[in-house]
Design the sequence.
């Protein structure tokens, strides 16, 4: 595996040397599955960035935001912006958290004279991980020689898709993984039923949506499901276990970085 | 109509397991989504048409008073009359008085969501005026004594077998089992009603300020029969449906049929503007338009203004994964799905509709397909903000979220507390890989296992690594 | 305070005004109204007739092409025979000048409950959508387009326009101004209200046939 990425893409002209990335790991990755965070760091470094993870970060504020508590969300926004605004880029291994930082922070702080401009400047630096690797760094996964045998299908998480336009990028990256083929499922863009606190407030509806998504996934013949949002993946993996459906699940970053040994919900080896 | 929105959770959960409803929903979804997509694929100019319409409608709403007054002038010049109804009760009173003054015994109705909103049929029936719905879907639910479950396909929740049963009961045997037969019988039964009705009442898809016309679109032609055969024509519509010119109407027409049913244009697209001329051989002798406010003028001045751009196409609910699984009745009132969840709290009160804005995953598909670019998820979130502000919503979730929020604002404390909790959960979950049950997390575990956390937090590990690196 | 005043006050309050728009704004609004600007619309083929026919076929409208109006009477009789319909039509007064054959029973006027077939003219056809636009008047009763099972429309080639907006122009130019009832009909009546399957012949005509005259 090459030590440093030789893919200094002509797209990225921000700095002559290594661009400095501040990683926002997200609460789910931090608490539930740190391997996604480490995979993100590895990929970003291979893509020629220096990566730091400032410690004054916890949660993007989505749970508060989507439950109508805009004050707490704004407070978390200020905390997050203060921790990360000094970097060239702020990269997030989650479409929904990146969407919150990029799209909603500026809205929330639009009427705050001290923070409105800062939030806008911050927003311009925010990228979801997979789209960052392709759109900004022009990263070529095949240069890594990553091997992962199997047929996978892909779930397009809603926020990433609709707030940030993440669709082709994960597929472009996965095409560089040897041994892996991607079989598209029906209704790949339909919600998996996670929806943050929705899944615990309306569990029956959420369960049905998850169930339908897994049916579509199985119909492709794939036994691996990949995505870019840990919330969706936890939801789907939990549902698959409950229904006895054999479907290994990973965050795309883990597969790309060659760190996909134990799938989500699988017992420790 | 009685507001049953407080029962959403229970009715939605039950709806998931009603086989007839699930069959009907699957059917409807496939048709509506597929047909719309096909129609839009044929129009490369779609996004431009969509943004022109948004600009036009925003302009109209900014000048709503001017255009409404211009409309009234135009209608009067055409020989018609405009009645103003600030509330639902006003609308019912005005129309009941018109019917009684005309000594009307039978009214035929075209499909009108505004008439459902004000509960017009109940008011007329109470005054001794028989009302017969003539849109086939509305006729079916009238026979079933049910509210509509979809704004353009009110009987979308009914299977063919259910319709056969209803018709057999209402019309007498023999039972008809094929669709063609059912449609033919409805045609015959309702033709009699058209011919004997005293008054025809329809809604309007929009109305035009400069010409004093209203637009009525149907595929069945029932709206036009209501508007052409009886001696009096009454139109009930709402103040937000106005557009300035015929050209503005054309922009809307292009969006409406494609978004609703995937047609280039509805089968019968009609513009009516007044009573018949003296020498005409048919047509109504009186033309009345009732303009209903019912909270819309208030929405014009608050965070929900964008909702007034709605053209009632139904695309949002056709693409909503929640609506697509629970159907329209669970929402408990006239308007279901995403647009219903924005409107209903505004019209009947947030305190009665707590679930509606929350039963949404924020997936955003509705806003994507909305021809009038209404930011539906943002509006639903605004209802959630108002709920939070007013202290509405379950105590448990508020407390839990407040705890989470205050911990998250103290990173050191958060990291210090979360680490041992995660280590514990990771440790006990190692062997199986996932939890089937966890105290306090039944909302999650009732429907799925909870994958066990890895066993240490990222932040703790990263800190350790950085320390090792720097030492 | 009248109901209208009540609603106006509420609207103006929401818009942040206490009174009607200022003179300058009113002038701007009048100008906008008169300009009647057309918005973005789907392109219509240069072959308007071709597009019209394609759109018509899509919605189960049928078509007979004639070289002149002299052929119309026999063509109508022939259509009725072809569909095994009684040789009886109700026509709009605008078609009373046509030399209908003796064998055909012709009633002129509005539709009667028992009428099975009607014939009307139209004011234009719209290629964009495959629609026939008809304006109600003493010469062309509205019920003829909706009550009978079979509706036949007489269309001249030079009446075909491209877009809805072009049809509005035709509508405005009618003698006597804009009719109180303008109908844009695109095919026989249909419904999808039973299990979302389209069936023809809900309340309006089961057939819509166009005679296209050169």
Sequence:
């Amino acid at each position: 595996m090459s030590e440093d990425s030789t893919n200094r893409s002509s797209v990225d002209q921000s700095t002559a040397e290594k661009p400095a990335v501040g990683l926002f790991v997200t609460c789910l990755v931090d608490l539930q599955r740190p391997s996604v965070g480490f995979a993100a760091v590895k990929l970003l470094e291979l893509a020629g960035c220096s990566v730091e993870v400032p410690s004054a970060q916890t949660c993007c504020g989505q749970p508060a935001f989507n439950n109508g508590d805009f004050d707490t969300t704004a407070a978390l926004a200020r905390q997050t912006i203060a921790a990360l605004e000094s970097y060239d880029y702020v990269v997030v291994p989650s479409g929904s958290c990146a969407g919150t930082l990029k799209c909603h922070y500026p809205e929330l702080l639009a009427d705050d004279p001290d923070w409105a401009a800062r939030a806008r400047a911050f927003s311009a630096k925010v990228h979801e991980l997979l789209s960052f690797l392709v759109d900004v760094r022009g990263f070529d996964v095949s240069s890594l020689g990553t091997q992962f045998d199997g047929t996978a299908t892909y779930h397009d998480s809603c926020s990433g898709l609709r707030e940030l336009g993440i669709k082709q990028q994960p597929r472009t990256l996965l095409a560089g993984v040897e041994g892996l083929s991607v079989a598209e499922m029906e209704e790949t863009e339909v919600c998996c039923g996670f929806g943050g606190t929705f899944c615990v407030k309306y569990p029956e509806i959420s369960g049905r949506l998850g169930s339908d998504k897994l049916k579509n996934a199985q119909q492709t013949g794939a036994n691996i499901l990949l995505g870019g949002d840990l919330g969706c993946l936890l939801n789907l993996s939990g549902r698959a276990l409950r229904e006895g459906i054999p479907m290994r699940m990973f965050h795309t970053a883990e597969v790309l970085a060659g760190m996909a040994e134990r799938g989500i919900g699988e017992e420790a080896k | 109509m009685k507001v049953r929105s407080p029962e959403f959770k229970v009715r939605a959960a039950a709806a998931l397991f009603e086989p007839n409803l699930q069959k009907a929903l699957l059917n409807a979804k496939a048709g509506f989504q597929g047909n719309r997509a096909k129609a839009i694929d044929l129009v490369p100019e779609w996004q431009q048409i969509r943004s022109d319409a948004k600009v036009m409608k925003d302009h109209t709403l900014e000048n709503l008073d001017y255009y409404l007054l211009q409309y009234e002038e135009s209608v009067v010049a055409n020989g018609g009359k405009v009645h103003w109804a600030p509330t639902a009760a006003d609308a019912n009173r005005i129309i009941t008085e018109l019917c009684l003054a005309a000594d009307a015994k039978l009214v035929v109705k075209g499909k009108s969501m505004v008439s459902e909103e004000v509960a017009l049929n109940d008011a007329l029936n109470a005054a001794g005026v028989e009302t017969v719905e003539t849109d086939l879907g509305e006729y079916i639910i009238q026979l079933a004594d049910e509210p509509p479950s979809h704004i353009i396909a009110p009987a979308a929740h009914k299977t063919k077998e259910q319709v056969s049963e209803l018709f057999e009961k209402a019309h007498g045997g023999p039972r008809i089992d094929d669709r063609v037969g059912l449609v033919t019988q409805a045609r015959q039964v309702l033709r009699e009603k058209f011919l004997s009705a005293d008054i025809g009442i329809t809604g309007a898809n929009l109305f035009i300020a400069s010409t004093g016309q209203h637009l009525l679109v149907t595929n069945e032609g029932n709206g036009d029969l209501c508007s052409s055969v009886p001696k009096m024509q009454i139109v009930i519509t709402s103040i937000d449906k106005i557009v300035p010119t015929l050209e503005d109407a054309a922009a809307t027409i292009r969006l409406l049929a494609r978004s609703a049913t995937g047609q280039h244009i509805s089968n019968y697209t009609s513009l009516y503007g007044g009573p018949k001329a003296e020498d005409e051989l048919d047509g109504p002798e009186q033309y009345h338009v009732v303009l209903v406010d019912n909270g819309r003028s208030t929405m014009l001045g608050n965070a929900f203004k964008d909702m007034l751009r709605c053209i009632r196409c139904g695309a949002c609910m056709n693409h909503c994964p929640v609506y697509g699984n629970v159907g329209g009745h669970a929402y408990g009132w006239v308007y279901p799905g995403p647009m219903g969840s924005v409107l209903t709290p505004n019209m009947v009160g947030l305190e009665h509709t707590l679930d509606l804005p929350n039963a949404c995953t924020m997936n955003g598909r509705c806003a994507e397909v909305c021809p009038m670019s209404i930011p539906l998820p943002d509006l639903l979130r605004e209802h959630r903000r108002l709920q939070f502000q007013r202290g509405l919503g379950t105590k448990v979730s508020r407390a839990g979220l407040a705890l989470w929020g205050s911990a998250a604002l103290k990173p050191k404390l958060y990291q210090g507390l979360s680490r041992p909790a995660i280590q514990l959960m990771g440790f006990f979950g190692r062997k199986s890989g996932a939890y089937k049950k966890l105290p306090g997390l039944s909302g999650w575990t009732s429907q799925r296992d909870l994958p066990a956390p890895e066993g240490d937090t990222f932040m703790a590990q990263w800190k350790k690594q950085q320390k090792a690196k720097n030492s | 305070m009248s109901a209208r005043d009540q609603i106006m006050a509420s609207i103006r309050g929401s818009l942040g005004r206490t009174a009607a728009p200022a003179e300058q704004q009113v002038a701007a609004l009048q100008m906008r109204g008169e300009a009647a600007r057309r918005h973005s619309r789907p392109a219509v083929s240069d072959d308007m007739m071709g597009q019209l026919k394609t759109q018509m076929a899509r919605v189960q409208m049928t078509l007979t092409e004639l070289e002149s109006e002299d052929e119309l009477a026999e063509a109508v009789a022939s259509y009725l025979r072809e569909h095994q319909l009684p040789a009886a039509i109700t026509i709009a007064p605008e078609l009373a000048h046509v030399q209908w054959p003796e064998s055909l029973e012709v009633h002129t006027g509005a539709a009667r409950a028992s009428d099975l077939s009607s014939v009307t003219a139209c004011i234009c056809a719209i290629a964009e959508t495959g629609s026939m636009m008809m304006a109600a008047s003493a010469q062309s009763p509205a019920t003829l387009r909706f009550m009978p099972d079979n509706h036949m429309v007489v269309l001249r080639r030079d009446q075909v326009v491209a877009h809805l907006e072009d049809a509005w122009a035709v509508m405005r130019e009618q003698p006597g101004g804009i009719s109180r009832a303008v109908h844009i009909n695109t095919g026989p009546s249909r419904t999808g209200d039973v299990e979302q399957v389209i069936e023809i012949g809900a309340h309006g005509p089961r057939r819509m046939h166009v005679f296209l005259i050169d």
Observations:
- Residues 3-35 of chain C form one domain.
- Chain C has five helices and twelve strands.
- Chains C and A do not touch (no CB pair under 8 Å).
